[in-house]
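job 3f2a | input accepted
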Amino acid sequence: MSPLTHALLVEGPEELPAAHRLHPLDPPADKVTVTWYGGREHFVATGETAEHDGLHCAVYRWSYRTRIAE
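job 3f2a | predicted structure (70 res):
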């Protein structure tokens, strides 16, 4: 099986664009953070995998949001 090079980000804000839902893993990590709409969306690895657009992806589930301090 090929290494998991992308994270598939599930749940979280419905408005999060599809382009943000497929995230490169370089290097692989337990958490992924995406900056979006004045905050950061935090996702954690689930240990699951899924196929998406022909890629074998690690599944990361939304955990919480933080606001960017100004």
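job 3f2a | Strands lie at 6-10, 22-24, 31-36, 39-52, 55-67.
job 3f2a | closed
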